[in-house]
Amino acid sequence: MHRVQVVRADITTLEVDAIVNAANERMLGGGGVDGAIHRAAGPRLRDACAQVPEVRPGVRCPTGEARITPGFDLPAGHVIHTVGPVWHGGNADEERLLGRCYSRSLALAVEYGLRSIAFPAISCGVFGYPPDEAANVAMRAIASFLEPGADLERIVLVAFGERAESTLTQALGAFGD
Ligand code: AR6
Predict the structure, then answer these.
(1) What is the pTM of this model?
(2) Would residue 34 show up in a list of annotated catalytic residues for this protein?
(3) Are strands 18-22 and 4-8 parallel, antiparallel or unpaired?
(4) Fewest C-beta in 10 Å: which of 23, 25, 95, 177?
């Protein structure tokens, strides 16, 4: 896991090939990190999102999947939009769906030839996923993705605050190097 690091930051400031957005299925913006990314990327991001085809009415990106757009005014070249599960107590397939957010986002990054990617704590805000459990899911998904030797050079887990930083650092530490 030497390619994985925890960084305390506002994800919209990071100079990486892609930042991941914790979006919703409509993909037209929202609150939390989604709102911050849309504000920093400028209105062209919403236009690009609107052009992503709907898979069913009102759904551009189903929960557990990912879509990619340019980053426009962001320092990051791309935004990978993924939709985490809403926490319903842990027995509603949340863990599998959250893991898929990470693996699908990483797969898209590799497909586009990207070398660095930064993730926020998907589902850990409005969607209510317990941050310590989510951090372990994230590490497991990343570790199993990296095993086959994917080309990614740098995977950043963004901590938005001190508590998030210690949660993520602890989860990463449990995986060793
Ligand atoms: N940089 C990094 N992390 C951030 C930032 C930032 N600028 N701002 C917030 N976070 P949330 P969710 C952290 O609620 O739970 C939206 O309305 C925040 O502290 O943004 O997946 C969407 O449109 C938290 O740890 O995403 C969806 O409807 C984490 O990002 C819904 O919220 C995720 O919090 C998605 O909910």
Answers:
(1) 0.97
(2) yes
(3) unpaired
(4) 177
Stretch 68-93: mean pLDDT, rounded?
98
Q: What is the pLDDT of residue 149?
A: 60
| CA distances (Å), origin 41, targets 64, 67, 70, 138, 164 | 23, 16, 9, 25, 24
Q: How far apart are CA 68 and CA 64, in angstroms?
A: 14
Distance from the alpha carbon of residue 96 to the mean position of ligand 1, in angstroms: 19
In short, whether 23's Cβ falls inside 6 Å of ligand 1 is: yes
Average pLDDT of the segment spanning 96-100:
98
CA distance 3 to 142: 10
Query: How large is the average pLDDT for residues 84-103?
Result: 98
Which residues, in sequence order, are CB contacts of 26 under 8 Å at separation 6+? 58, 59, 60
Closest CA to 11 of 164, 131, 130: 164
4-174 sits in which CATH class? Answer: alpha beta
Q: For residue 97, which of 107, 106, 87 has the smallest C-alpha distance? A: 87
Residue where the block lists tokens 């320092």: 75
Strand positions, DSSP E, 58-143? 66-70, 78-82, 116-119
Q: Which of 56-65, 71-80, 140-149 has the lowest mean pLDDT?
A: 140-149
Q: Is the pLDDT score of 57 beyond 60?
A: yes
